Amino acid sequence: MDRAAAPADLASLELPPERMRALGEQVLARVVAHLASLERQPACGDVAAQDLCRSLRAGPPEHGTELEALLTPLFEQWVGRSFNTAGPGYLAFIPGGGLYASALADFIADATNRYTGVWQAAPALVQLEANVLDWLREWMGFPPGTRGLLTTGGSMANFAAVVTAREARLGERLREGVLYASTQSHLCISKAAKLAGILPDRVRRVPVDGAFRMRVDALRDAIAADRAAGLRPFLVVSTAGTTNTGAVDPLDAIAELCAEQGLWHHCDGAYGAFFHMVPELRPLLAGLSRADSLALDPHKGLFLPYGTGAVLVRDGAALRAAHAGTAEYLPPPADEEFYDPAQYGPELSRDFRGLRVWLPLQLHGTAAFRAAIAEKRQLAVEAAATLAQRPGLVLLAPPQLSLFAFHLHRPGADLERDNADTRRLLAAVNARQRVMITGCTVDGRFLARVCVLSFRTRRERIDLAVRDISEEAASILGSV
Ligand SMILES: Cc1ncc(COP(=O)(O)O)c(C=O)c1O
Q: Does ligand 1 lie within 6 Å of residue 271's CB atom?
């Protein structure tokens, strides 16, 4: 057969180097233009997109399309139809921002596609991940015997910790075990308990004090009541920075009680743990270093793009015991000296997620991260202090870290009226599209909350937030 007449080699998915470069440059041009315009983009984005979503439904393409034709709607029509989570005005939920250096790391990790599930497949690359875990350990004040795991987020980090505590403290006697967390703990804790086989009737929601922190007296009483009922209290989950109001539980007192009662103390530091990197701020998290395990979220407090959480376990052997395993088709696990990810977590194949933490820290240096974290707290403290002066604005939860929550109140108004006014305020502030804030309901009261944690949120943007909130509050409270 005449080779020249043969059809193109359809089975080849490889690209020649010039084409790779050209495609990369097209993507880079789009990404850089997008990031450079974040400041000017609307803070909330237009997410009323049912019709758009319906129009996007499509089957798999049989034939290829030019990249530019794909990038155009992606960047011009679809990316913008979302919360602007990367922008400087994102003060909603718990921000992070998404460091560019991590995007570069992901590109390298995906392009080189090395296997970091087991140590022996990429020892040097796994060592970089081990270094990252060791840095986290040091910043959190955990001892050298600690082992950890990079996960996809805080929920998975908390899950790994709950499983480890369950294995270490309950063995096969799951049904008797009781877990304690405050009424303000994150949804992922009860989810983790359920997935770990601790059913809802064995999860106690401990009440909080006026600053939304777990009440240790109530915790003590709950433990005693469960023991009296023949159950086995085994785990207390504290929170270092709650999602609703940013409250830090009394970590030292909880550590003390857990030591006295022989309970595992896990701390959910998904939002707040990275404030411990800054020596001057450590007193805000006193006792964090005493926890048996700690969840932390680099995609929040280290400003990474979504997709990276971490867990540290003081007794590294316990984390390993909960997850270790071998198989005939795998190389033998590395010995203790070398970190072997699959022995410390549920995944085998996984992305090389250590690089997206390692590269930005190497590129910017740790000092830059400490400075950025300290700045976010300072901005929150100052903004809260200014807003607290505004008539009719009640700062119910001043910043314990970098999150504060407040509501409106006009003289004589009842709870329902306060809630309606505060919801109106939230909608009016967001409609200005310079910042995005979200709310939460605690004991029936609706609170607007501001969380300063994006690396792109600097003083100029916080000043705009304070101005928008002040003006809209005055306008609402001045109206009949
Ligand atoms: C206190 C706390 N714990 C856990 C989580 C869950 O983390 P992720 O969303 O990374 O799974 C969050 C998320 O906001 C959080 O604020």
A: yes
